[in-house]
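Sequence in, structure out. First:
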Amino acid sequence: MTENDRPLHLGFAETQATYTSASQSARVWTAAWAARELYCPACGEDRLDAYPNNAPVADLFCATCNEDYELKSQKTRIGAKILDGAWATMLARLASSANPSLLVMRYDRDRQAVSDLMVVPKHFFTPDLIEKRKPLADTARRAGWVGCNILVGRVPESGRIHIVRDSQLTPRDTVLAKWRRTAFLRDKKASARGWLVETMAQIEALGRPDFTIDDAYGFAPALSRLYPENRHVREKVRQQLQFLRDRGWLEFVGRGRYRLTSE
């Protein structure tokens, strides 16, 4: 076994630490676990380094490929929304190259171990996936502050890469292959990626590897609601299919039929 093949140990080593707040204890344990155990899902480097506490952009980084990661941990199952920070800050990050990829962890407090860990590469993030929350009430300590949710449920399955699922490890080679399969999205600006990400999600929602151009035209109502300013949705859909085909995510099999390529 090479160093890069080592398995992850899912248990927390910091169980001796005690804090008045259970959430504070969990935050320390999960952050320390990620810095000690986790490899870089972008390049496979065997470790990630931790940024100083309260770093404004990210929690972890890879010194080999310079990928940044934000870590969100919770004891409940990972749902369709992930609570994030300030809405305006998040939108500003999306407009820059400093936006980190997202690691979402579910931990078992009783076992003091990781149950689930998913990474969403930053090239899947677009403004459409950021939901603005209501401002805090005037009586709140930070009255008027506006937070946001990340709508991970709208990210295509291709962009939700499971490193740990139900306490079972995904092989590292599989994780790296899934990351590489959609890396072509980084060549696109956020505005163009929105159409691609939504089209990919619609294709995957069909639930089968083969589909027709007519199936794809069936995405038009949903895409029109998302992009009401566009009056040529069918043409735009064809453009997305061609791009995804050229990048190897889809295969054109003839007579208006497409097939998802294998990972």
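Second:
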Amino acid sequence: MDLSKWNFETGTGNNGWGNGEFQYYTDRTENASLDGDGNLVITARKESFNGSNYTSARITTQNKLEITYGRVEARIKTPFGQGLWPAFWLLGIPMQGQIWPEIGEIDVMELRGQLPAEIASSLHGPGYSAGNSISKKYQLANGRFDTEFHVFAVEWFEDKINFFVDDLLYHVIDKVDIEDRGDEWVYNDPFFLILNVAVGGGYVGPPNDFTRFPQMMTIDYVRVYSE
């Protein structure tokens, strides 16, 4: 992992990062390390750590790599199991006292571990966040996201954002459509990248007796292309 571009975020993030998640994010090699083949592996573990019953890792490019427009992609193999929540996403830079969702959020990929063939991409902004986000699901006709690598990407323009899986365009969100709804387009300022594996939370629910740990999200690469 290139520490000139990536940071670790650690802790529980104010009671589960706003989502009721269970994990404690660490900067330990037990939760994020290279696998010897050039891949970064984020590992969620079931273990007691600083008051939490699970650990994992969350890395960001905040204050090191912040972008406005272009193509962002990552080649990833996801974990599997009830209660696991891997994600690859971008978050806006807070300006003039802004808070989420006013800063904007672009979810390139998030997956419910209990649904290993389906991912979702979303935009969160003022008036359309959390359960009201502008979202679309993509399901593999054959295969699963946890058994092989797939490329997840966005192409981000001043007036639209396109979402891809393996270069297949499956979701387009236009500025005009958001503004026609009476909502605000908040995607013309810098954003930073995030990769993480959460455990639990409202989106996926808790792990169950059939969830096996440790679980890994394996990242072959992350690439950013300027517009």
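Remark: The first strand starts at residue 7 and ends at 9.
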